[in-house]
């Protein structure tokens, strides 16, 4: 989910290959429009007037609010695959960079953004033995990136230049999404674990950590 404007959020619905534009009106949430994607869609963020979304097949795409595709990236400047299973995507405050996690490549990739043009030559590709199956990510006011390691059960803090600073959390069970509070003194982490007992269902838990 991402905030498009003060009254509108965009939400990916992977099972339906759809982005739903949801608007707040009179304290009610209403689906305003639907955007079909070419395949299962996952991560989403907004840049001025446009939506960035990760799509199954290894794509990062930029679309208008009407659903028109204006940019798509899968390969780097040498023709090599950048992504195979892109998950979450986020932009920095200046909206001139994109950060994308790839679950199967175990990478956090920084891309340079000029308007709606994505440079195929990455700013950096972060890899570490401490990061396995990365999923959710967010940025702080200084541009540091916090990234979830789903299989490494941790949250790492990475500098804007792609240098590992330290592990913020080392005991999170299957973290897959996170966010910082406005004051950046707390981190909200969504974790996924078995329900326990005889339950076969996975349990989604939101944990709050002081940082």
From TrEMBL:
Highest rank taxon of the organism: Eukaryota
Molecular function as annotated in GO: ubiquitin protein ligase activity
Record domain SMP-30/Gluconolactonase/LRE-like region: where: 92-191
SUPFAM superfamilies hit by this protein: Calcium-dependent phosphotriesterase
Pfam families recorded: SGL (PF08450)
GO biological process: proteasome-mediated ubiquitin-dependent protein catabolic process; protein polyubiquitination
Name listed for the protein in its UniProt record: SMP-30/Gluconolactonase/LRE-like region domain-containing protein
Native source organism of the sequence: Dreissena polymorpha
Origin organism lineage: Eukaryota, Metazoa, Spiralia, Lophotrochozoa, Mollusca
